[in-house]
Amino acid sequence: MADAITKIRTFIFDNFLFDAESSDLKNDESFLDQGIIDSTGVLELVEWLEDECGIEVEDEELIPENLDSVNNLAAFIKKKQQ
Amino acid sequence: MCGIAGYYKITNRQNCDRRTLERMIYPVQHRGPDGFGFFLGENVGLAHARLSIVDLEGGWQPITNENRTLWIIFNGEIFNYPELREDLLARGHTFSTHSDTEVILHLYEEKGTQCLAELNGQFAIAIYDTRKQTLFLARDRMGIRPLFYTSHNGSFYFASEIKSLFNADLGIPRKIAPQILSEIFTFWSPAGEETVFAGVKQLLPGHFMEVTGSGIQKTECYWSIPFCPDEPGSRTEQNYAEELRELLIDSVRLRLRADVPVGAYLSGGLDSSAITSLIKHYTNNPLKTFSVSFKDKVYDETSEQQEMVNYLGTDHHQVTCSYNDIAESFPDVIWHTEITILRTAPTPLFLLSGLVRQNQYKVVLTGEGADEILGGYDIFKEAKVRAFIHSQPDSEIRPKLLKRLYPYLALSPTKSAEYARKFFATDAHMNDPFYAHRPRWKTTSGTHVFLTDEVKNARPNPVDGLEYLRNDLQGLDFFNRAQHLECKALMANYLLCSQGDRMAMAHSVEGRFPFLDHRVVEFAGTIPSRYKMKVLNEKNILKSAMKNILPGNIIKRKKQPYMAPDILSFFGDGEPEYFDHYLSEDAIEQAGLFKLTAVNRLMKKCRKKSRQGFRENMAFVGILSTQILNDKFINNFQVNQPAQLENVKIAKS
């Protein structure tokens, strides 16, 4: 889980946090509410999950509960990898 | 079509002369390569660069009236000039030419500023009255033709393009206005009359201005977009469709008036197909059509274009755009847009006007304006779905409609209904005058992370810039409000100028827009919203009006808005060499408009060459275009002015 969180944080920082330090990113903050990821950015996130984490994301899984914070993403990755 | 420029010496009676006119008109020679004409009065100078389209022999400007008291320069076309001329002749006026320009002059002589109500056209006009010593400036209703002005060192300057103002006197301050940059990075264009350059304003569409020896006396609105409150009414859809069709036939007929051949742009969408088909069915104009195709198939509409070409049998010409073609032309495009742009979409149209010119054509009809006045844009559809969800927030089925929006985007924000619902949820209430536009502005404002604090703080709430429209929007439903806003802000300040006039005129090509005939716009304003977009069927009345003269596929086709590749244009085929100049760390820091660290991180992401979201695409194109603007207009502004212009006709008072 800790590894997954580090990996997710690195990805978010490198790709979406243009004007912030990595330490500004809270693991339970909503990406959409904080303006970190916009509606089209979500699909970049999905591409990353598929390409870098080897996870297939079904359309019905495209919900904020799975993807909209570092913690949610880590839980989703864990669930999919089980 | 032409370029115009001029000055009025207010307090400093020494500083302007013929050389000033030469310096002002030469930078817009692309608007009128067929010769120059000057008027030199005691305190006023007028200059005109001519593109001969009507009255090829006699249409030189400036033109004067019978007793040489009024002098006019004019950029544009008055399409109903033969009828107006006949009336004026019957009322005793004497004409020395057959041009539309002279018609305006005599009409002004007779009716003063009221003359504007009779003009059906696209225009920027300057008339100097030597008796009253008053300069009258006016701009067409929708903002098809540009007109900018500034004051400096005791003189008032005006011109078709800003580069003429800056070249009039190199002492005129050239500075990017941070608050307007903040507006552009929210709305895609300035909100009102100010431009991205501090101190330079546009005369707003549908406005006129009077300048005297004491300076600007008044600026007045003579026409406003007439969207009406939605009345139940007794007219049927069929009835509206028939009237629209008749009006469009007449609008196209008037817009084919020229002493040179007239072509048409054909995008493959409903609007340009409708115009092309109307030309073919209702006039004898031999039809040449022009279109853009893209090597990136996500943006390409060749098969739809070809379907229309086959259907109508036009003589068709096409320019194909690669990523590299867009990147290569981009700095030239910014020299012409004279403003930050967040999309590359004007660039292919710059290449297209080049193709038109290569084919010896000077005039094209296009489908611009239909989406705004007849309810075509996804933003209207999106607002309708949001309002529908809003009225029953607990419904689980209604949010699924959001999935029907934006099917054409490679990264669609509505692929997931749950996400779309969360994304489109704003604090806006349906009574908010800007209800429809809030999600778009929220997305675009995502780019603010790249702006320096100085730029961000110059206008912390960019929507303040649109407050002047609030009164116009009162009493309208959210659909009409969205249309009104789209016409006044985005169409006038971006589509018709950066993407329209500037890209066509860069290659001396005049665009004409049958949907923007004021009679068509006024009529469209009376069509109830429920008919314009029936359920989620956009431009429903236009489709009914055109169903007998267009192939079924074109009528039924899901709308695909015109777009071009953004980030990929600059990274897909390799990076252009000019990045070292415009986007170097030194250049970013010197301009002081963008945060260096943020720009560096964005560049790193762009180099992955993957398809990216709205924010990144808009931010990158916005940053690059602003840096080019800063270089070409602020740091290194230069026009290679010849010692003396040739082919100049001069009139003196």
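The CA atoms of residues 268 and 306 of chain B lie 8 Å apart.
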